[in-house]
Amino acid sequence: MTNTSSPRRVGIIGGGIFGVATAWFLARAGVEIILLNDGPLANGASNRSIAWLNSANRRSAEYHALRMLGMDRWRSFRAHRPESHGFLRFDGGLRWKSLIDGATLHETLKYEQGIGYDSQWLDCDQIAQKISGVDPSSIKEGHAIYNPGEGWVDLPSVISLMARELRARGATLVENAGKSDIVTNSGKVSAVRTAAGDLFEVDAALLATGPSVPEAVRELGMPMGDDSPVSLLILTKPIASGLRCVLNTPRAAIRPAVNNCLAIDSGWVERAMIIHDDGSFEYSDETVQTLLQEAEKLIIGNPKLQIDHVGVGRKPIPGGGEPVAGALGGIEGYYVAFSHSGATLGLILPELLAREILTGEISPLFANFRPTRYADDVRAAQ
Ligand SMILES: Cc1cc2nc3c(=O)[nH]c(=O)nc-3n(C[C@H](O)[C@H](O)[C@H](O)COP(=O)(O)OP(=O)(O)OC[C@H]3O[C@@H](n4cnc5c(N)ncnc54)[C@H](O)[C@@H]3O)c2cc1C
User: Fold this and answer.
1) pTM over 0.90, yes/no
2) Whose CA is nearest to atom 11 of ligand 1?
3) Where do the domains of the chain lie?
4) Ligand 1: which of 46, 181, 232 to mutate, most ligand atoms within 8 Å of CB?
5) 217 pLDDT exceeds 70?
6) Which end of the chain has fewer CB atoms < 10 Å from its terminal CB, N or C?
7) Do 93-148+229-314 and 9-46+156-225+319-381 fall under one CATH topology?
């Protein structure tokens, strides 16, 4: 499908990396932008992400290709913007946890090397020589996978940089707009609306509300799988840890953050969350303290870490795990963006999506990630 006319005015619901970056690409192409976010910009998953830029582990060839392009786009962004050097780094990743179900770390290494991913096998002596800030005695496995090409990004810093440019280009960014929505009329998008009922007429709109996307789509009568767990991220106070690369270990993932802070999370913490029937959630102080202690063990000298703040909320993960991006289908001018690994995909997915919104042309890279795939699955099962 090709648009007969490009939209002149696009509404975006959601001020996380997908909403803001798509707005940024569209504004650069001359489109007028109205972006509505419930609270301040970057108040969702983008503000509590470990944001490891990677394509480690086993996944579909299409998803791997998109992630590799995602890393490529961040490298270009960094190369052309010296101001990003403090919040976008490619200092490598070190793992001694296999994320492939049932595979040993060495089998994971072999798989990754087989597809050309730059994975290297280091023993503890090599780690001690090569990787700063890590306590090799914490690596009970005796080996780790080192990926020199991986990195991390501070998404709120990117969002703030893009928001500045968007405002300079005349975009309307409405913060604290409350629960906003996309208004349709006769099967077409007609406006975006704040919780207070303020309407902004638009020609097309993007729903980029992170883990809230599936619920809004289901309210339109369309299926969308949702596996979003509740996750927790600790941000520490500044510390001279010497750590530069991203660590993924059995009990904690940890990365440097801006201003010499550290960001810490782990999969077991998601399973320790207490989720109530009404969807509300809580966590124990013991969970936070245990995670902090696990992180301390990883750092050379095992320094005492101090918590600056803890971010808790849902981590967007589409049903089936792969991204959801593009036209929703059934409503003209209605687009969605919903993905796990939104840090890695933080530029490439919005770039391709902005092009689809502008031209109606679907990137072949998006062929497997269409929002309509859930409806196709339902039909196939009938
Ligand atoms: C703990 C954790 C670890 C992660 N680790 C990694 C990683 O290592 N690598 C990686 O690549 N990715 C990682 N991710 C995933 C990545 O951070 C997310 O995929 C990405 O931030 C999602 O961005 P988004 O714009 O879709 O959503 P969000 O950042 O959640 O933005 C959506 C925005 O919409 C707002 N909103 C919601 N509903 C409405 C409404 N109705 N009206 C107005 N506004 C609304 C929200 O408040 C929010 O600001 C991690 C995420 C978490 C939470």
Assistant:
1) yes
2) 341
3) 9-46+156-225+319-381, 93-148+229-314
4) 46
5) yes
6) C
7) no
Model confidence pLDDT, tens digit, residues 84-135:
999 999 999 999 987 777 889 999 999 999 999 999 999 999 999 999 999 9
Q: Which fold has domain 9-46+156-225+319-381?
A: FAD/NAD(P)-binding domain (3.50.50)
Residue 142: exposure state from Cβ atoms within 10 A (0-12, 13-18, ≥19): exposed
The CA distance from 216 to 371, in Å, is 13
Is there an atom of ligand 1 within 6 Å of 233 CB? yes
Distance CA 187, CA 209 (A): 21
**Paired tokens of 265:** 């999370």
Contact 191, 201 (CB under 8 A): yes
Which has the closest alpha carbon to 298: 233, 236, 248, 237? 248
Q: Is the pLDDT of residue 3 over 80?
A: no
Instruction: Give residue 279's pLDDT.
Output: 87
Q: How far apart are CA 286 and CA 293, in angstroms?
A: 10
From 74, 207, 341, 369, mutation site for ligand 1 pocket: most ligand atoms within 8 A of C-beta: 341
User: Would you report the helix, strand and coil content of the chain in percent, each value rounded to 5?
Assistant: 35, 25, 40
Comparing C-alpha atoms, which of 7, 8, 9, 26 is closest to residue 337? 26
Tens of pLDDT, residue by residue over 150-189, are 999 999 999 999 999 999 999 999 999 999 999 999 999 9
CATH number attached to the domain at 93-148+229-314: 3.30.9.10
pLDDT for res 378: 84
Rounded to 5°, the CA angle 329-333-338 comes to: 65
